[in-house]
């Protein structure tokens, strides 16, 4: 993405008139992305003449790589080159480009119309360099020109391989689509997806003992993390457990405290939910106040903790009303939820 941003800035600077070369790249980009009524979008040619008002895409910005000259491993005899000339090869490649089936296959391989045409022009230039061609491609071109096999679609494997060499981003498009797919957030946490987690939901009202029981399992584990909604609760767990002689570190957005020191971090951590590291593997994780995942402002942090914590056991503490949404979020992963219900230990007085 950094390379693409640099490329965008360089291209926009090239398109700017000489009198505006002193304008920063960020200013040009701002002018380019403004919509109707907000200013004049800038999309000029090399002379600085504004072109159209359409928005740029990645296909407008990327340029084919210039590949270094390659030498074939096999020795090409002069008789192989008999009957080959630039004009004949150009006709074959142009026929290949005009085939609807070729364009369909290119689209299925991630090449839209703009990239296809750019890749075709680069491929056509490559096919003119007979001494650098793959011998197999050379034989296919010669067969087509001599009428021995007129199926120009045989060129497609060589074309798509060349396209991916001159446009390396094509190899990453599927990964980019998966990463940017906001409909499947469970795929954002590969560390957690390598574990078949055991999910226990401690459901009940305040002062029912649900968090107490979850913390008992936290103490029994070899490693663990407690995620609370407030710094006050994270500090409370940190203070109480260390007073009992059970070493727990604390991590919040403001500070980190160590039971011993930073050279000897503890295997157990008490943190605010936003500070959970999804790359940290632990035996037990306790996520308190799980019903907060429905909150419009901070709900993302509990959703991230639920889907992303890399723990063998995940203990969720919260209200009964949160059980359906938790089950729904975990359904695509195939993880089931064991629900343990609690009753209030003391009467509620209004």
From TrEMBL:
<protein>
    <recommendedName>
        <fullName>RNA helicase</fullName>
        <ecNumber>3.6.4.13</ecNumber>
    </recommendedName>
</protein>
<dbReference type="GO" id="GO:0003724">
    <property type="term" value="F:RNA helicase activity"/>
</dbReference>
<feature type="domain" description="ATP-dependent RNA helicase SUV3 DEXQ-box helicase">
    <location>
        <begin position="185"/>
        <end position="342"/>
    </location>
</feature>
<dbReference type="InterPro" id="IPR027417">
    <property type="entry name" value="P-loop_NTPase"/>
</dbReference>
<dbReference type="Pfam" id="PF18114">
    <property type="entry name" value="Suv3_N"/>
</dbReference>
<keyword id="KW-0067">ATP-binding</keyword>
<dbReference type="Pfam" id="PF22527">
    <property type="entry name" value="DEXQc_Suv3"/>
</dbReference>
<keyword id="KW-0378">Hydrolase</keyword>
<dbReference type="GO" id="GO:0045025">
    <property type="term" value="C:mitochondrial degradosome"/>
</dbReference>
<dbReference type="GO" id="GO:0005524">
    <property type="term" value="F:ATP binding"/>
</dbReference>
<keyword id="KW-0347">Helicase</keyword>
<feature type="domain" description="Suv3 N-terminal">
    <location>
        <begin position="60"/>
        <end position="176"/>
    </location>
</feature>
<dbReference type="InterPro" id="IPR050699">
    <property type="entry name" value="RNA-DNA_Helicase"/>
</dbReference>
<keyword id="KW-0496">Mitochondrion</keyword>
<dbReference type="InterPro" id="IPR041453">
    <property type="entry name" value="Suv3_N"/>
</dbReference>
<keyword id="KW-0547">Nucleotide-binding</keyword>
<keyword id="KW-0809">Transit peptide</keyword>
<dbReference type="InterPro" id="IPR055206">
    <property type="entry name" value="DEXQc_SUV3"/>
</dbReference>
<dbReference type="GO" id="GO:0016787">
    <property type="term" value="F:hydrolase activity"/>
</dbReference>
<dbReference type="GO" id="GO:0000965">
    <property type="term" value="P:mitochondrial RNA 3'-end processing"/>
</dbReference>
<feature type="region of interest" description="Disordered">
    <location>
        <begin position="30"/>
        <end position="52"/>
    </location>
</feature>
<dbReference type="InterPro" id="IPR044774">
    <property type="entry name" value="Suv3_DEXQc"/>
</dbReference>
């Amino acid at each position: 993405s950094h390379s693409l941003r640099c490329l965008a800035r360089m291209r926009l600077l090239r398109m700017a008139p000489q009198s505006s070369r002193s304008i920063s790249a960020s200013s040009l980009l701002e002018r380019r992305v403004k919509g109707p009524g907000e200013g004049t979008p800038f999309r000029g040619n090399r002379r600085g003449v504004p072109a159209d008002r359409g928005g740029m895409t990645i296909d407008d910005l990327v340029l084919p790589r210039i590949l270094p000259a390659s030498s074939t491993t096999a020795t090409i005899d002069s008789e192989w080159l008999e009957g080959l000339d630039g004009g004949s090869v150009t006709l074959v490649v142009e026929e290949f480009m005009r085939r609807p089936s070729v364009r369909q296959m290119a689209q299925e391989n991630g090449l839209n119309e703009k990239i296809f045409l750019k890749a075709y022009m680069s491929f056509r230039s490559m096919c003119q360099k007979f001494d650098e061609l793959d011998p197999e491609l050379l034989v296919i071109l010669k067969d087509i020109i001599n009428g021995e096999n007129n199926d120009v679609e045989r060129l497609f494997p060589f074309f798509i391989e060349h396209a991916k060499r001159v446009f390396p981003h094509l190899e990453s498009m599927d990964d980019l689509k998966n990463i940017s797919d906001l409909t499947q957030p469970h795929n954002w946490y590969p560390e957690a997806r390598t574990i078949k987690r055991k999910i226990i939901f401690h459901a009940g009202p305040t002062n029912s003992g649900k968090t107490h029981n979850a913390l008992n399992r936290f103490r029994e584990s070899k490693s663990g993390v407690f995620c609370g909604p407030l710094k006050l609760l994270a500090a409370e767990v940190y203070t109480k457990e260390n007073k009992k002689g059970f070493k727990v570190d604390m991590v919040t957005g403001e500070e980190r405290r160590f039971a011993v020191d930073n050279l000897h971090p503890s295997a157990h951590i008490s943190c605010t939910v936003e500070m959970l590291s999804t790359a940290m593997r632990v035996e037990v994780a306790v996520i308190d106040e799980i019903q907060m995942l429905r909150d419009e402002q901070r709900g993302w942090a509990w959703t991230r903790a639920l889907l992303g914590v890399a723990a063998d056991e995940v203990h969720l503490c919260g209200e009964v009303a949160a059980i359906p949404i938790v089950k729904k979020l975990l359904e695509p992963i195939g993880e089931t939820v064991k629900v343990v219900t609690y009753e209030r230990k003391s009467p509620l007085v209004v």
